[in-house]
Amino acid sequence: MKDATPLAWVSSALTHVGYVRAGNEDAFLDAREEGLWVVADGMGGHSRGDQASRAVVNSLVSFKRSHDLTQNIENLESRLLAANRACRAMVRGKVIGSTVAALFAFDPFCFFLWAGDSRIYRLRDGQLKQMTEDHSLVQEMCALGELTPEEAEHHPSSNIITRAVGVHDRLRIEMQYTTVHPGDRYLLCSDGLYKDMEKDEIHRLLAAGSADHAVNALVELALERGGTDNVTAIVAQAEYV
Fold first, then answer.
1. Domain extents for the chain?
2. Given pLDDT bands bounded at 50, 70 and 90, which one contains residue 6?
3. Mean pLDDT of 218-238
4. Which runs of consecutive H residues, i.e. helices, occur in the chain?
5. Helix/strand/coil for 143
6. For the chain, does the N or the C end have fewer beta carbons within 10 angstroms?
7. Strand, coil or helix: what is 100?
């Protein structure tokens, strides 16, 4: 499959260490010309989480899109598998890991590839929708009917993830796709952004102003709520040329 009628994408990205952690274990890639955006959150409970998130981003930074969809997807998956191997080999005898949430635009579609609890949201026609499902213990409990989504957000085990780059020899990446509409606005973010916000707050700030304005407003609110974690956000919007 080849690219259809081209869309013009505008994007803005921002990361902040927050006010509690000593270092920033988040990393991001804003590769608008390649139609690729990535957020990675190094696992704070493990050693060298910043190295893991950088390994994810470094594996994708040299990605160059082709005109063949299958080739692009296979390339992205191969690079993430390479990042997984790099993390596994980085510190022998220890485990380091990182979430990944990637959006790849291939007109008229966009694809979501993820592992862990970094999220991708879509704002379309005034409606906010979470496009990824967390790979987390509390999400599994929700699926079993043991927790409501509201209970899951504030559960003491909400930070336990069930998939990540670097944690196991075999990386399981989930992928979904959707058709892009002109005006669609996407938010990629680490849990340091969404965990201290209500969904309607994310909706309100994501909808306001330019991509640059929205990303700054979102990160600012997360910091106002205490900045208890590293905070990273990317806002990407599609328009027809």
1. 7-240
2. confident
3. 98
4. 49-60, 69-90, 137-143, 149-153, 191-194, 199-207, 211-224
5. helix
6. C
7. strand
